[in-house]
Amino acid sequence: MRLAANLSGRAHDQMRPILAERADRIILVSILIIAAMLRGQYLFQPLVDAFSWREASTAMIADNFYRTSWNIFYPEVSWTGPGPSYQGREFQIYTYIVAILNAIFGWHDWFGRLVATGFGLVTVFSLHRLAALVWNERHAHVVALIYAAMPAAIMIDSSFLPDPAMLAFVTLGIWLFLKYWAGGAAWLLPVAALAFTLGALTKLPGLAAGAVVAYLVVIGVGKGQKRQRIPVILAMALGGATVFSYYSWAIFLGESYPPYHVAGSGYIWESGFEKFWKNAFFARDLWETAYYWFYGLPLIVLFVVGLWVPPPLPGPEHGKSSTLIWVPHIWLGSGLLVYLVAAREVSNNPWNLHVLSVPIAFFCARGALFLVSLGKYTYTSLATLSRAVFVVVATVLWSISPAMESMKRPYAAAAQEMGQRLATLVAPGDLVVAISPSVGDPIAIYYSRQRGWVFPPGGGEKMWSVFVDDDETAIAQLEELRALGAGWFAVAKNARDFKRRYFIEHHAGVLAYLDETATLVEDTDTYLIYRMKAD
């Protein structure tokens, strides 16, 4: 009987790791399902949410690949006239995938959200495995769950934007690189380098995570790792050269074709350190984005606590080295450095903060586990369970729900309605001029399925989100566009510029001019549409 008991005990001990591994897999799959559900609820929403401006331009690029040219090195928008309207932008992996779907299945505006969600799920998986490698499985579950439910991540991963692809590639690349660095197979290095390079090509802020690789090369050289240095440095150099070459081409392209526009502006070397300093590096804009949109107070509290609490001690999977446990700190520091040199650009286009979603999820998870256990790291008591429930409820009520309601509100619904009406009125090849509720937003042109201009016409260094001060100049701009072939003019009645001036009030003289020189085709509660006479 004693022998039987010993054998039973050994069998139980052998089964325990297998059962734990299965439980971990079930938890990971459950987190992926939660992430898919949170993002999928916005799948069929038109591109009218808080990010409609950038979504419209991105969607136009996808459109023009399958409607005009499949050359991935010539991204083209449709809001600067008949074209070609090539612009200097990131490498178009994301839009190319959407274009292929459009070519196969026909045009659907939700394909962009579908592809973005797919990339978001890749990030959830890679982040989970990354967290398990640098900290442990328990932290990995919470890190991945927080990322899955973080308002910023839900919003960006369900938007027609390239940023989800960037973070998916970068996170995958860093995870595979760390596996290689920790003694994994040699094939992991080229795959990791390829994934990371694609991420940086897809959006340049992804380069921030490269500090993790540099950190390990410089600091984390342990037993057996010195021989890895040269291959890693060569892989980094090749990836860096590829990224540099492409963005050099993007700048050349953007500066060579009208409207001479290269995406991204507001860097410290453009605006000057003095302007950044006077505006406190636009910290107020950052706080408002973080508090009202991206995170909310509960997640901010968890993040601050997680920063204060030391990282977990290295487990057996780390050997005796504590090098890997600092990976989230390195990623966060490099991301903040990117913010400091591009604060104005990030404050205008907050989706560029997505590269920080990974370290933020790490520290929120660390803070959550600390608060739930009150530092004792026991998770089975009723008190611990009660605290966990409170953290979850607070996060849902004061972070996720209000933030998503605000960000996904259909701000540009009038523009979509106006654009769809234009699509039924205009003939193929007609050029339109359209003013959306947010001046400069080309979403109405996108839904018209035509090419045309935003108004005031934008491009280059022009400020196209602000109306000119007088009607005479605006009329002259309109006449220039008519001479270039513009045949339709449409304006949302709630259209207002950056200075909060409504078009129908500020430019009443322009509307009076159109009443005399054009034909009013539609006058609804939400928009006006004019048929302009040919020059």
SSE string, helix = H, strand = E?
HHHHHHHHHHHHHHHHHHHEHEHEHHEE
Domain count: 2
Protein structure class: mainly alpha
Q: What's the gyration radius in Å?
A: 26 Å
- The percent of residues in helical segments reads 55-70%
Strand order of the largest sheet: 2-1-3-5-4
Distance between the termini: 103 Å
Question: Approximately how much beta-strand content do the residues carry?
Answer: 5-15%
Overview of the structural elements:
The protein has 535 residues and is mainly α. It has two domains: 18-45 and 114-407, no CATH class; 413-532. Helices cover 61% and strands 5% of the residues. The protein has 23 helices and five strands. It has helices spanning 2-40, 52-67, 93-105, 111-134, 137-149, 151-157, 163-181, 188-202, 210-218, 229-256, 268-271, 273-278, 283-294, 296-308, 327-341, 343-348, 357-373, 382-407, 413-425, 443-448, 471-483, 503-506, 508-517, and strands at residues 431-435, 451-454, 486-492, 518-523, 527-532. A five-stranded mixed sheet has the order 2-1-3-5-4, sandwiched between helices. β1, α20 and β2 (451-454) form a beta-alpha-beta unit. α2 packs across α3, α6 (151-157) crosses α18 and α15 packs across α17. The chain is globular and about 80 Å long. The model has no long low-confidence stretch (mean pLDDT 91).
Brief rundown of the structure:
By secondary structure, this protein is mainly alpha-helical. The protein contains 23 helices and five strands.
